[in-house]
Amino acid sequence: MAALKACGRWMVSISGQKLIAVPTNSNGEPFVFDCSQAEKRPQETENKGDDGGNEEKGSDRILALAVSKSGTLCALTDDVKRLVLFRTEPTWRCISTRWVVRRCTSLVFTCTEDELLAADKSGDVYSFSVSEPQKPGELRLGHLSMLLAVEVSPDDRYVVTADRDEKVRVSLLKTPYNIQSFCLGHREFVSALCIPAVLPHRLLSGSGDGTLKVWEYESGRRLQSWDLKELSSTSSTEAGSDTRLAVCSLASSPDGGHVAALCDSVPTVHLFRAKPGSDGLLSPAQMLSLPRCAWDLTFDSQGRLWVLQQDRENPALLYTRTEGGWERKCECTELLRLEEVLQTHWEMFQDSVGVASCFQHLYKVNFDNMASYLQKKQERIQQQNQQRGKKRAGQLPQCNSNKKKAKKGGTAQSGS
After folding, report:
1. Largest distance between two CA atoms of the chain
2. pTM, two decimal places
3. Is the peptide bond before 30 cis (omega within 30 degrees of 0)?
4. 233 near 240, Cβ under 8 Å?
5. CATH number of the domain to which 9 belongs
6. pLDDT single digits (tens) 292-324
7. Does residue 139 sit within a domain?
8. Phi, psi of 401 (to 5 degrees)
9. For residues 264 and 227, is the Cβ–Cβ distance under 8 A?
10. 126: which strand partners?
11. Beta pairing, strands 147-152 & 158-163
12. Distance between the two ends of the chain, CA-based, in angstroms?
C-alpha cells in the first residue's frame, strides 16, 4: 500500500517498488530509489528460510517506511526482505543494505536515532544499528502473532508493539523481556500506534474495529475510546452500515495539539484536539471530506497536514490550520511540485489504486457451526425417512409370500 511521510525538508512517498523524495523548499531534483535495481541478496543465502529450505521469491515491493525525528534518516524494507538505510542530508545517499529474517510490517527509529526497530509478520522485533550500518540485526522481543505496528516513547524508555490478536504490549526498550504493561480492549487487530509529542505519556491506538483509543500506557489504563464510524454520518454512508472500518494511519502535529486519523477505503479524515492540561484526553475537532479515498497522511514540520489520495489529477492534498479550522490549500508551490512529481511517476501507484482493503485478510472469520449442523441434521433425517419408506414398501409383498410358503409347508406335514 502507498504511504507518505514528511522527512525534514522532503516529502517521501512509497508505492510498488519505488521510493520518491521531493524537496519542498527548493528547486532541487527529486530522489528516486527503485528496489528492483537495488543490491541483490548473496547467492549463498538467497531464498533460504530459517530452516534452510527454499522460500518463495519476493517481488521487490516496498512493505514499510520510516523516517527519523530529525528527518536526516530514512529506511525502507521490501518483499525480498531487503532493509535499506538512507541519509537525507545534505543529499540523499544509501548508507547500507541489510537483510531481515522475515518480511517486515513496520519500522521505527528510536528518538536518539541510534537504532532502527523492525517488526515482522512472525511477531518478532529486530534492532539494527545506525552507527554501524553493516551490523546484522539483533532479536529484541517476540509476540505469538503477526506484528502490525511498533512505536517508541519520546524518552526511548519503552517500545510499544501491536499485533493481530488485539494486543498492545509495552516493554522496556533496553531490556524488552521486561513487560511494563498490556493495553487491552480492542476487538480486532491493532493497525496503528502514535504517541503525541505534547502528550509523552499517552498512547493512541487504531484498530480494525474502527475505534481510536487513548491509553496511559505505563499502567495500561484506557482513558478514552472513540468509534470513528459513529462520529461521522458521512463515513457511515460511504462505507455502509455493515462495513467494518480499519484505522490505517495515525499522525500527530509537531506541537502535539492535533491528531489525525484515517480509515482504510473511507474518504474522511478525523481530526482531534489534544491539550496538555486536559489529562491527555482528546476532543473531536473537525472532519475533512476528501474527494477520493486516501492511502496515508502526515504532518510536516510547519504543522500542515498532507494527504496522499487515489487521484492522478490531484494525488496530494494540503490542509493548513486557521482560526476557523482546517482549510484546504490549493495554490502552493510545495504542493504543486509534489503533485507534478507524483503525476510523472504515477505508474508506481498502479498496484495500490482501487484496492478494496489491505486489511481484509486480518479480520477474524466467524463460522456459524450450529446453523450448518442443524441443516445437515435435517437433511440426514429426511434421507433416513425416505430409506425407511422404501424398505416398508419393499418388505410388504415379501412378507405375504413368506406366509403362504409357511402355510403350504405346514399342510403337507400334517398330511403325512
Report:
1. 128
2. 0.84
3. no
4. no
5. 2.130.10.10
6. 999 999 999 999 999 999 999 999 999 999 988
7. yes
8. -65, -35
9. no
10. 118, 139
11. antiparallel
12. 100
Note whether residue 373 is domain-resident. no
Whether 296 and 4 have beta carbons less than 8 Å apart is answered as yes
Q: How many CB atoms lie within 10 A of CB 172?
A: 14
Q: How far apart are CA 371 and CA 364, in angstroms?
A: 19
Q: Where are the alpha helices (DSSP H) in 87-208?
A: none
Give the pLDDT of residue 44: 54
| Encoded amino acid at 290, one letter | L
Any idea what DSSP says for residue 29? P
CA–CA distance, 329 with 5 (Å, rounded to integer): 18
User: Which letter does DSSP use for residue 407 in this model?
Assistant: H
Alpha carbon distance 345, 207 (integer Å): 31
Beta strands in 217-334 (DSSP E): 221-227, 247-252, 258-263, 268-274, 282-289, 294-299, 305-309, 316-322, 325-328
Task: Supply the pLDDT for residue 197.
Answer: 78
Q: Is 352 exposed, middle or buried (0-12, 13-18, 19+ CB in 10 A)?
A: middle
Q: Which residue has the cell 500506557?
A: 217
* Beta carbons within 10 angstroms of residue 72's beta carbon: 15
Q: Does some domain include residue 393?
A: no
Which positions ≥6 away from 46 have C-beta within 8 Å? 40
- Structural domain contains residue 180: yes
Range of the domain at 344: 3-362
DSSP state for residue 348 in the 8-state scheme:
G
Residues of the chain whose pLDDT is less than 50? 50-54, 234-239, 399, 411-416
Residue in the block written with cell 502514535: 194
Q: How many structural domains does the chain have? A: 1
